[in-house]
Amino acid sequence: MEPISGTVQFLEVIKKEGSTYHLKTEDAQYIRMNASASENEFDIGDEVSAFIYPNRTGELFAAPIVPTASVGQYGYATVTEVNRDGAYVNVGAPRDILIPWIDLPKVKDVWPKEGDELYLTLRAEHDNQLYGRLISENEAAERFTPIDQEKFKEMKNKWLEGRPYRLLRVGTFMLTGDGHKVFVHESEREAEPRLGELKKFRVIGINEKGEINGSFIQQAYKKMDADSEKLMDYITKNGGSMPLTDKSSPEDIREAFNMSKASFKRALGRLMKEGKVEQTSKETVAKNQ
């Protein structure tokens, strides 16, 4: 008999005992289903479409749901808990599914957090227990929806949303809700996102395969405007001064404004050029205060 843990099966109701239905698969495997798993009641002989999942001891149960992901089927699953064992996700089943720590990034800072969504499938072990398996690069390449030049012209410089499925030093690989594949080079990000984090990106190009090249960074002139406003707002609210200059450390700048030192210097230089601020040896002050 074929293993059925983690799959959706059509089962026949053969009897009901108390709050438990007894079901049978087409190849005569017998599965139980708690009546509380469904708002509907079933009669003997009814056919039920149900997801098959194990309890903690490996005994199989049925739940009349359509999971977001199953064995052989990919989909998004929401992260419900993260601990040293890995990340638990909800595919709609009565039990959450573990993605083992060994399958997550080596750097825990980019592990997913509760509420993030991961694109995955399920795998079943010999004891029926289920685990999540993240989509691989080869599988993503087979499943993504390419875009052509006409579509790119419509999308260029627009901000879209996607979720990272693969994180490398060279860049971030993402999928959008429409199934488009996105690559953000390391030079187009100021910080590395989490796996499964909902992330906005700007469309800046496409490659020959129809994959999007994206950026987490605003166009330079718009970003400088926003950064300059952030600095000026801080100075105004802080009595006309800021305890940072273009000589300050990158760590102090990032802690204060969550921006790189290069972005800080460009924004500060713009304010100085416009005659709004000046620097002393220890601080930046607003002019005409």
Automatic annotation (TrEMBL):
Residues 74-132 form the Conserved virulence factor B second S1 domain. Residues 6-62 form the Conserved virulence factor B first S1 domain. Belongs to the CvfB family. Residues 229-284 form the Conserved virulence factor B-like winged helix domain. InterPro entries: CvfB_fam (IPR014464), CvfB_S1_2nd (IPR048588), CvfB_S1_3rd (IPR048587), CvfB_S1_st (IPR039566), CvfB_WH (IPR040764), NA-bd_OB-fold (IPR012340), WH-like_DNA-bd_sf (IPR036388). It holds the Pfam family S1_2. Residues 147-215 form the Conserved virulence factor B third S1 domain. This is Conserved virulence factor B. The lineage of its organism: Bacteria, Bacillati, Bacillota, Bacilli, Bacillales. It comes from Salinicoccus cyprini.
